[in-house]
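Risk register update: the risk of archive-format incompatibility is retired. Evidence:
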Amino acid sequence: MNFEFILVEPAIEKHIALVRLNRPKELNALNLQLMGELRDALKSLDDNDEVRVIIITGNERAFAAGADIKQMAGKTAIDMLQIDQFSTWDSIRKTKKPLIAAVSGFALGGGCELSMLCDMIVASENAKFGQPEIKIGVMPGAGGTQRLTRAVGKARAMEMVLTGNFINAQEALSYGLVNRVVPEELYLDEAIKLARDIAAQSPIAVQMAKESVNKTYENHLQEGLFFERKNFYMLFASEDQKEGMAAFVEKRKPDFKGR
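Archived output:
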C-alpha cells in the first residue's frame, strides 16, 4: 500500500511490523489523511497472519505534536459532526493485535491520545506528554479525558487537562502512563524488544488476553468517550474556540472572553 504521511515496514523483524508517522516538518501533526492512512495500514497488518505485534512511532523530535489545528480552526460544531473524524479512531481501537507506541519527543493532544490508544508505551528520556487543547479554547476529543484519567488517576488527569501543562518521561513512568523509559537512542530498540517477547507467545492467546484486559473498563470507557465527544463538538460553537485556534495559527496569545 502506498501512503503519503506514514511509512510501513510489515516485517521489521519476524512477526513484528513498524508504522512510522511521517510528517516531520509538522511534527507529525495528525491530519485527517494521516489518520485514515494509519487506520488502513493497521487493518492490513491486522489481517496479515505473519504479523503478531505492531509498533507505532514517529521520530526523535516528535511522536505526534497534536492534531492539525489548521484543518479544524474554521470549522463549526456541525462541520465537526459531519466530518466524523473519531470513526477512524474507533476503527484503530478495534485492532486485535497488540499495539506498542514507541514515543520520543512530543506526544501532545492527539499525539498523547494516540499513544494511549495503543496497548503499551515505551518512551525515550526526552518524551513529553500532554493534553494542551485547553490553551486553544477546546478540550481533548479522542479519549484524552477518559484514557488519561484511567492511566494516571483523576487528580493528575484533571491538572493536565485543565492547565494544558506537559509531563516528562519520568513523570509519565511514575504516574503509570508508560511502561518504561530508556535513553533516546534506545527507545525504538526497546519497543522492538518488548514486541519480540510478545511475538514469541501464542498469537491467538495474545489476542484473547488483550481483549480480556480491555474488557475491564471498555463498557464504561465507551460511555465516557461519547460524553467527551459531545462536549468537544459543542465547543466548536463557542467564540473562544475560534479565537483560540486562530491565535494558534497566527502564533499569538489568545484573548478568551468566556463565550
